[in-house]
Specification:
By secondary structure, the protein is α+β, with helices and mostly antiparallel strands. The protein has 2 domains: 68 residues, Orthogonal Bundle (Arc Repressor Mutant, subunit A); 174 residues, Beta-Lactamase (2-Layer Sandwich), CATH 3.30.450.40. 46% of the residues lie in helices and 19% in strands. It contains 9 helices and 8 strands. The strands form 2 sheets. A 6-stranded antiparallel beta sheet has the order 5-4-3-8-7-6, with helices on both faces. Strand 1 and strand 2 form a beta hairpin. Helix 1 crosses helix 3, helix 2 crosses helix 3 and helix 4 runs antiparallel to helix 9. The longest helix has 31 residues. The radius of gyration is 23 Å and the shape is elongated.
Length: 255
């Protein structure tokens, strides 16, 4: 097995030192604290600054943690809070609906599955946590797309992939679908990602009503929809109730 990479260990030590500091630190202070040559410390700091992990004050020349690193930390906390707040409600939704439940959030123009509860039966199922799903072809994705301008912008100028005959790839039709999601408070997919599969999802809101994720169920079309391929109102109600419950736990009290 290869050994540790010294430069990465030193960079991590610098970041920890800056995180523990009550103010900005100069190159000499950092080098002295970690037993590094001043030139070595300066070279690592310049690299960290280039990728946004540290920032240098123009007046003093001292360093502090950068916005890019802070954003990564905030994203991690947001995802984990979403998952921890939603776990119990996701389990309850799977029990009530009899279907698999997924919780997703937006990541680089896709839906990142952060939690997955198996359908409560004995069938063989694969864990989807960490999977990236398309925004335009899933109920989770549509629920996010309808309430996030950045999500809509991320796919506006891209060619949307067709997964099935019913996949919506026309931006105008997708925009109309997003409008319906906002009006109804929930999203659906019927054989848009996989033949024979359907799904229902609703947005999860945090403080101020900001949509931070979505929760939904998925399963066979004949279980999710009626004979007219319309999602069963009973299941829609279950999903919306779960989304409201998670939203309340996250501070979105109006929902």
């Amino acid at each position: 097995m290869p050994g540790p990479v010294q430069s990465i260990e030193r960079a991590a030590a610098i970041l920890r030192l800056l995180a523990a500091s009550s103010g900005r630190l100069g190159v000499g202070e950092i080098a002295g604290s970690l037993g590094l040559a001043r030139g070595t410390a300066h070279g690592i700091l310049r690299t960290l600054e280039r990728v946004g992990f540290v920032e240098q004050d123009g007046g003093t020349g001292k360093y502090q943690l950068g916005a890019a690193l802070l954003h990564l930390g905030t994203s991690y906390l947001d995802v984990n809070e979403l998952r921890s707040r939603a776990i119990n409600w996701a389990d309850a939704l799977a029990s009530r609906s009899g279907e698999a439940v997924r919780i997703g959030t937006l990541l680089d123009g896709k839906v990142l599955v952060v939690h997955h509860v198996f359908r409560p039966d004995d069938t063989l199922q694969a864990l989807d946590v960490g999977s990236l799903l398309p925004l335009h072809a899933t109920a989770l994705g549509k629920a996010l797309l309808a309430h996030d301008a950045n999500a809509a912008a991320s796919i506006r100028d891209t060619e949307l992939e067709s997964y099935c005959r019913r996949t919506i790839t026309d931006p105008r039709l997708l925009a109309r679908a997003a409008t319906r999601v906002r009006e109804n408070g929930w999203a659906a997919e019927v054989e848009e990602l996989s033949i024979g599969e359907a799904g229902i999802a609703a947005p999860i809101r945090g403080y101020g009503g900001l949509v931070v994720g979505a929760i939904g169920i998925s399963g066979a079309v004949e279980r999710i929809c009626d004979t007219g391929r319309v999602p069963e109102p009973r299941l829609v109600a279950f999903v919306r109730d779960a989304a409201r419950a998670v939203s309340r736990d996250l501070g979105g009290s109006r929902w």
